[in-house]
Design goal:
The chain is mostly helical. The chain has one domain (about 5-185). It has 8 helices and no strands.
Amino acid sequence: MDFFNLKEIFSVSMVLFAIIDILGSIPVVIQLRNKAGHIQSEKATIVALFLMVLFLFVGEQLLAVIGLDISSFAIAGSLVIFIIALEMVLGVNFFKEETPESTSIVPLAFPIIAGAGTMTTLLSLKSEYNTQNIIVGIILNMLFVYVILKNTARIEKVLGKTGLNILRKAFGIILLAIAIKLFRHNTGL
């Protein structure tokens, strides 16, 4: 068996691409940038990468040490995602205004990029794929995330204010649905 399996890397990359959904998060990223003044793309990407790789190796043990199971972690993440989605749909602010530095980490790096859905997905992928292929998939996704974060101003310019409002509301509804699905799946409702 090859050390790096291109089929596994492609599969892992596609799964993570769908879960991270940075394209769907563009309205949230733009909203955070407008609140904070700027986003530190490098910092957000590196922190998200670090969190994902760390969680890949010690996620289950870390949660066990603090007395949490994966479902509880996923439910907490779903609630944060739900609140962010409500902000998008209703146009209200639930989170207090953050300083520009901290916005790059919370809520951007975690939980938007490397959230509970991503973390639980990594644990699932670990049971199916070789670790080195998962790491390559994470790195490829983080490179794409970085490019999107660096170009949010251009994306905002292309979409315009109306396009952004439509995108924000549409993806807010999708985020609400993802949050509810994550909540239901982990509570058994």
